[in-house]
Amino acid sequence: MGMSLRWSGPGLTLASAQFLLLMAALRLGPGPGAGVAAGLLLLTGLFGWQRALRHGRLIGDTPTARVASAAQGYVELRGRGQPLDGTPLLSPFNGLPVLWYRVVTERRERDKWTHESTDESDASFLLDDGSGRVAVDPEGARMEVRRKEVHLRGDHRITQWCLLRHDPIYVLGQFITLGSISPDHDLAAGTRELLAQWKQDRPALLARFDANKDGEISLEEWEAARAAARQEVTTLRDQALAAAEAHVVRKPTDGRLYLISDLDPDKLARRFRLWSWYHLTLFLGSAAGLAWLANKGNLG
């Protein structure tokens, strides 16, 4: 089955702007106004082509990791969706439990539909790949979701895209582990930092380690303080190592693509390639239009 070039999110915004520019250029006809519109089409086509090409390469070039062994940083993960423990997320469309939803409400005005509102969930959900679970934060993600439901209520049309429990989930984003600590944590550095904190509160230091009560910390008493500090740092490290780690995927801080989808990555990469061809065609067409206007002397 072929892959359609669907418009959603940033792609829809850019394509809508390009359509308006194209209509403006055609309505204005030959002249400076059409030249400006064609120039903007040229720039947006170049931008869209480079972005779609870059996103397609990210999907194709990033290897799939396993939750249990994923490195901290930019990763690709695949698994099944699961809800977080606690109160389930309910769809405002039909009241059923979902992992994520986007609900768009439109109103009929004469012979066309006008956008009225968009409601999108921001609650996290889990991805389980068999080796472990990771919480997926959808905030700031590009959502490419195929499950779509449409319902007509009077003069309103309500469209929902959603993810459900056990759906296949593909995520490309920033993987971090919260509450983790390296087993080779530097005990010496931690001990020095703790001792420095204790020295700032001299009365408390004396009350705790001035064994002979002479108002000074002797060498032997300082060694006792050092041993106590090292023991505290060791205990804290062991407690951190024993604590359960929480894995999270979220939007990368460096601006790279953050993508969540229930589609196969090969299909996603193909979709971005189609977008790149669309923008490249628009870029070349705009360049040809500008050249024609310049040849006709209609840019001045």
The strand count comes to 11
Rough outline? elongated
Order of helices and strands: HHEEEEEEEEEHHHEEH
Which structural class is indicated by helix and strand composition? alpha+beta
Structure description:
It is a single chain. By secondary structure, the protein is α+β, with helices and mostly antiparallel strands. The protein is 43% helix and 24% strand. Strands 1-4-5-10-9 form a 5-stranded mixed β-barrel. It has a 4-stranded antiparallel β-sheet with strand order 3-2-8-7, with no helix packed on it. β2 and β3 form a beta hairpin. The longest helix is centred in the last third of the chain and has 32 residues. The N terminus is likely disordered.
Task: Provide a quick synopsis of the model.
With 300 residues, this protein is an alpha+beta fold. It has helices spanning 9-28, 32-61, 187-200, 202-209, 219-242, 265-296; strands at residues 73-82, 100-109, 112-120, 125-128, 133-136, 142-144, 148-153, 156-163, 168-178, 246-250, 259-261. The strands form 2 sheets. It has a 5-stranded mixed barrel. It has a 4-stranded antiparallel β-sheet with strand order 3-2-8-7, with no helix packed on it.
